[in-house]
Amino acid sequence: MDRLRSLSKSMKIEGNPFGSSHQRNQIFLKFVAFFLLVGLTYRLIITDSTDSPIPQVRTSPDPPGLTASVAQAPAPVVSPVNITTAASQNASTKCDIFTGNWVPDPSGPLYTNTSCRHIQEHQNCLKNGRPDSNYLLWRWKPRDCDLPRFDPQHFLDTMRNKWWAFIGDSISRNHVQSLLCILSQVEEVEEIYHDKEYRSKIWRFPSHNFTLSVVWSPFLLKADVFENSEGVSFSDIQLHLDTLDPKWTDQYVNFDYVVISGGKWFLKTSIFHENHTVTGCHYCQGKNNLTELGYGYSYRKALRLVLDFVADPNRKAQVLLRTTTPDHFENGEWNSGGFCNRTMPFKESEGEMKSEDEFMRDIELEEFRKTQEEGSNIALLDTTSMSLLRPDGHPGPYRYPNPFSGMKIKDPVRVQNDCLHWCLPGPIDSWNDLMVEVMLNREIEKEN
After folding, report:
1. Given 170, 172, 178, 213, the catalytic residue
2. Is residue 135 scored above 60 in pLDDT?
3. Catalytic site residue 411?
4. Is 418 annotated in the active site?
5. Residues 171 and 252 in one domain
6. Which of 45, 323, 356, 431 fits a 20 to 30 Å CA distance from 8?
7. pTM, rounded to two decimals
8. Whether residue 245 is found in the same domain as residue 195
9. Model confidence band, residue 442 (pLDDT cutoffs 50, 70, 90)
10. Domain containing 312 — which CATH number?
C-alpha cells in the first residue's frame, strides 16, 4: 500500500488540476502504469492462492472385472479389459490393423521352442533341425499405426472365470498352441480333457479359473469323414450342409469368447446332403451322376449357418470369424513335391494369393458383412493378408527331425513339406496381438 500511496502522491499537480498539455500526458501515462501495476499485483495474488486454471480430466470408473491388485496400484492404471495402452485404441479405431508389413524385431518371440511344452513335434522347427532362425525376428506393423504387443498377464487377469474356445481345423489348433505357449510363461496350464484322437482339448489356468479349449470341427458342419492317420481319404466325405456339428454347438453355452474358422477342408472331395437328400458334390468327378456344385457352394452354406447360429441375441459369446489361411507351396502341392524354402518375409507389394484362397476369403467377407448390424457380437479377424507375407514361417521339410539326414544333396522334392501350418514360435504368434485388439478393445468401446 505504501507503494500505491507514493505513486498517488507523485501524481498531484498544483494549480490547474489538469495542468499543461505536457503535464496531462504525464498524468495519463502514470494512470496507465498505476492500473497495470494494480492488475499485475492482483493476478499474482490470485494465482498463488488458487488451483491451476487447467481443468482436471475426469477418469471413467474402473470397468467390471478390474482386480483389486491392479486398481490399487500407484502407477496409472490400464484397464485389464482393454488389454493394451492408449496406442491400442489408436490401432483399433483409426487404422486398418490388417494391412501393413512385417518389420524387424530383434527382441524375438515371447517364448522359445524349449520354454513351451505345448508345441507339437511337427511344429517345433528348430528342434527338428531348421538351420535358420531369422523368421523369429519379425513383428506385424500396421501401415498407419502401432499394434501393441500381447500382454499375457493382463490377458489372464481379464479372463478370470472366463472360457475361450477355438473352433475349426488344425490351423485353429496351431493358433491355440501359440496362445498357450505365450500364456504359460506367466502361469502353467493344466490339461483337463482330450478326445480319443487328441484333436479336441480343454485346458485350465487354475489361479485365474480361465478355461481354454480347441474343438476339432474342420467343416463346422456335421460331416462323416473317412481318412487314415496320414490324412488320406478312403471314401468320400458326406457333408450335411443344413446341420451344424454338435461337437461344438452342444457346449457353446459355456463359451464367453469364440474364434471360428473354416478353410482348406472344403477343398476335399465331398458329397452334399440337404434335407436328408443328396443335392450335389464337390470334385466328385461325375460319380453317380451327381451335380458338381463346388466348394464355394458348401463353404458359403456352412458360414451362413454358423453366423446365424452365433448371432442369436440369446447367446452370450463374443465371436471372431478368422479368415482363411493361405499356404505357400511352390512347384507343387503337399502330395506332389511342393516345397517352401524361403527365409525372408514378402513385402506388402509381393506375394500372390492362390485363386482358391482368394475365393474363400471373398465368401467370408461377403457372409460376414451380412451379419453387421448395430450391437452385433461378431467381429472379423482378417489374418489372410498378413499371413500371405510370411512364406518363411512354415515347417517346410522340418516337420520331421533331420529330414535330409543321409542325403548328399538336400532335395526338398523327395521330402514331404508342410507349407500350411506354422512353426512355433513363429508368425502365428502375431495373430494373438490382432485377436486381443479386435475382440477385447471392441468390447470396451461398446461398454463406453
Report:
1. 170
2. yes
3. no
4. yes
5. yes
6. 45
7. 0.78
8. yes
9. low
10. 3.40.50.1110
Single-letter amino acid code for the residue at 39? G
- The per-residue pLDDT for 180 is 98
d(CA 438, CA 420): 24
Q: Are residues 440 and 376 in the same domain?
A: yes
pLDDT of residue 372: 84
Q: Which of 175, 240, 394, 421 is catalytic?
A: 421
Domain count along the chain: 2
Which one of 418, 429, 430, 433 is the catalytic residue? Answer: 418
Domain that holds residue 414: 84-447
Q: Are residues 161 and 112 in the same domain?
A: yes
Quote the pLDDT of residue 228: 78
Residue 68 counted as domain residue: no
Has residue 79 been placed in a domain?
A: no
Q: pLDDT tier at 418 (50, 70, 90 boundaries)? A: very high
For residue 443, what pLDDT band results from cuts at 50, 70 and 90?
A: low
State the cell numbers at 388: 500371405
- Angle at the Cα of 74 from the Cα atoms of 70 and 80, rounded to 5 degrees: 25
- Among 297, 147, 302, smallest CA distance to 222 is for 302
Q: Is residue 67 part of a domain?
A: no
String of b and e for 30-47 (b: at least 16 CB within 10 Å)?
A: eeeeeeeeeeeeeeeeee
Same domain, 26 and 157: no
Residue 446 binned pLDDT confidence (cut-offs 50, 70, 90): low
In this structure, the answer to whether residues 11 and 98 fall within a common structural domain is no
Cell numbers describing residue 78: 490400464
* Residue 421 appears among annotated catalytic residues: yes
Question: For residue 177, is pLDDT > 60?
Answer: yes
Does residue 305 lie within any of the structural domains?
yes
Dist. CA 364–CA 288, nearest whole Å? 31
Regarding whether 140 and 14 lie in a shared domain, the answer is: no
